[in-house]
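User: structure tokens for this one?
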Amino acid sequence: MNLRQTVNLAKDVILMIVVLLLGGFGLYSVLRPATQAEEARAGSAASPLALGPAQQSATSSAHLQTTGGQSELPPHQKENIPSLENRDLAALFDAIRSVESGGDDRAVGDGGASRGPLQCGRDAWSDACEYGRIDWDYDTYVWDFARVSYIAHLYWKRYGATTDEARSRIWNGGPSGMSKAVTIPYWNKVRELL
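Assistant:
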């Protein structure tokens, strides 16, 4: 681990402690995207902080926390991250994140077609943005766990996914994912982590 990665790791730990102490007011999700942007500009391939399941759940919940329905973003980020209606999805997001990217928010898969913590593709992103009437740039925000979680939430709402199985299989196989047998092993992996 190089010095930059060590410093960023220390920042992550401090931010997470502050968020946990303050009850998860969204500080981690507000401050972390700027750190990732700095890493991207510097060309760093640093992976996110490796956490145990309980810590991942707490971190995910902190990512999803908002103040008054909107996150407090730095001045250079004016878009708001709407609050999730169902905070119980945090465990599902953690499981999908683990299956899709192994917790690496900068992961790239499927020959470059899927990116970020939930391995979201450009088409799913556009589909969810259209449904939610939001204009978030895929290349900029697909790496941000809070935003891509909201994108997944919109995608599931659009296609009527109301169970963890339906959400998982649709995320894996598209709008008709529930009718595809190839999404069953994916669901089994997610279910084991719930």
